[in-house]
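Hi there,

I know you've been waiting on this one. I reran it after we fixed the sequence typo, so this is the corrected version. Both the input and the resulting structure follow.
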Amino acid sequence: MNQAHKMYALSLEQCMQAILAGGANRTVCIQGHMGTGKSTILPMLGKELPTHTQCYFDCTNKDLGDVMIPNIAIMNDNSRYVTFATNEELGMHLNTPIILDIDEYGKAPRPVQNALMRLMLEHKIGSYTLPEGSIVFATTNLAAEGVGDMMLPHQCDRITIIYSRKPDNMEWIAWGVQHDIDPIVLGWCKDNPQLFHSFEDVENPDDNLYIFHPKRQSYAFVTPRGLHAASDWMKKRAQFDDQTLCALLMGTIGDRGAMDLMAYVKLADQLPTTESIKQDPHNARVPDSDAAVCMVVYRALASIEREWVSPWVDYMRRLDSEAQGLFANGVLAPNYAKSKFIYQNTNFAQWAMDNGYMFSADQS
């Protein structure tokens, strides 16, 4: 990715908004780093367009015969001709508008890429035409990653290529709070923004051993997708010993990431139980380390319910101002599902007034 492309690389939300606005007329192809959630744009669009059918076409496991296959049609005079049936994953047989994600387009065999060109340009394939209002977009990895993504100029000329950027650690944490990511993983991410750096900004791969770098052979490294998987293993940690947990993490986010994250597992012993905060917020344990305090805040954001907002606020007042602000900013995050009943809590409203925060109880 050259300097201009890096300067104008978009977040996934920006990519989604661009496709939402113009995807019915022009096919956008998103090129971005592996494991950063490019394919999640499909359900994001589906949320915005609930009457559209979501369709996913994975190019990595397709050959030309997986796009269209011959079918014999018989006319009234018994004469025959060859027509073609399309793959159901393309959604051409549906009678309602669709959102079609042509995933990993750059990795598709050349015949598959060619077969999809008219669909991407005109929303047509063979004798089929997508219903009016249908959206087609494509996703693929950066060519610089060296994982086989390649498009020829005449293919690129039929689409609009944009580049997506990696999220920074705080952007990913905001997403993680809303998607039940383990609080230990969230706390680790807060203290280690380098987990989200791009290999394009690291000339020497030894300067950042956490992330993927095409100059260093590695089969496990930190990506947002890998962090999500690591969170799933962390939630099961009570079922196996530390050696097993570390081995699982090494195979998910790499050796360096696993070793560092395991250090944060030790901090979990400092965390007060949620029940102790509910029952005795004025005496529940306050962790000694800043990292453990962050974990408590992220756990609260992910799990808080209406009935214990008040005791949580009482407990939160015992934390330092940075931790209190961390919780407030989490509540303010767009689409945070629990914000409305937190705003409506009188104890939280009083805390907000005391600390100069402005909230609206009718937000959702």
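Quick highlight: The two ends are 39 Å apart (CA to CA).

Best,
R. S.
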